[in-house]
Amino acid sequence: MALRFLDQQPAVVIESSGRRYLLVTDVHLGYELELASKGIRVPPQAPKVTGYLLGLGERSGAEVLVLMGDVKHRVTGVSWREEVGVRAMLEGLSKAFEEIVVLPGNHDAGISELIGGLGRVAGSRGIRIGEYWVMHGHTWPLPESLNAKTYVIGHTHPTAVIRTPEGNVRMKVHLLIEGSRSRLARAVASRPGYSEAFAVSRVRGRVRLLILAHFSPMAPGVDVSALPSSGRTSPLLRSGAFNVLDADVLSTSGELLGRLGELEFEEEA
């Protein structure tokens, strides 16, 4: 079983039980309407995103596409552009993948009706793919996730401003953090209805959290240097099990850029 980063692309591939799963998060189709409300006109992004995903599917050989939440952008309801764009995207992708799985995010109200028979909508609290627990990240996971070796989430849109010889570059990044499984178990057990689901005292060891970069070519990112003081993060980061300052900051190709607490990032002009 293996997780593989894709060269300079905000996506990963998991191989498990003879199948390859392509994982992407935070597509945010329909973000163009928010930009239009601010006087910024951009063309529909669904054709571009579909092309990117078709290319990644061909390069990776993945049979299953997992859309890890925030497929659409509007939080409540479905805009006309989302309805047209999401269905057109899934119709195009359904010819290239054996299965499309959607893990709803906090922007995905109405996604089940919108998708129809073009994909399978799983629970927002996540699914297991081998030793990985995969979810959007805006909710608490299910108790049965606690024996997974690694959680893979989105939701956070991590980005960093890096100094290069040519100047400062704002780039999407992944974050990888190792944390305490027992602390995470105590946090999960505190959720309503979960306290009787498992014996917290028996949960020990270390667990990893991989936060993927957002796939949207338009949606803004969140500066990773601000994450330690931010309250708008995943419940997993607020659980006390993971210290975000200990996170390894990775390029989208999986190259280590440094430890978050030790890196000096440039401020945007």
Strand content: 25-35%
Helices and strands: which structural class?
Answer: alpha/beta
| Secondary structure tally: strands | 15
Proportion in helices: 10-25%
- Give the C-alpha Rg: 18 Å
What composes the largest sheet?
Answer: 9 strands, mixed
User: Looking at the chains present, what oligomeric state does this protein adopt?
Assistant: single chain
Q: How far is the first residue's CA from the last residue's CA?
A: 43 Å
Q: Which spans of ≥5 residues are poorly predicted at pLDDT below 50? A: none
Count of the domains: 1
Tell me, rounded to a whole number, the average pLDDT.
89
Helical stretch tally:
6
Shape: globular
What is the N-to-C succession of helices and strands? Answer: EEEHHEHEHEEEEEEHEEHEE
In short:
Helix content is 20%, strand content 27%.
Please describe what this structure looks like.
Helices cover 20% and strands 27% of the residues. With 269 residues, the protein is α/β, with parallel strands linked by helices. It has one domain (2-259). Strands 7, 8, 9, 10, 11, 12, 13, 14 and 15 form a nine-stranded mixed sheet that branches. Strands 1-2-3-4-5-6 form a six-stranded mixed sheet. Helix 2 packs parallel to helix 3. The longest helix is centred in the first third of the chain and has 15 residues, at 46-60. The model has no long low-confidence stretch (mean pLDDT 89).
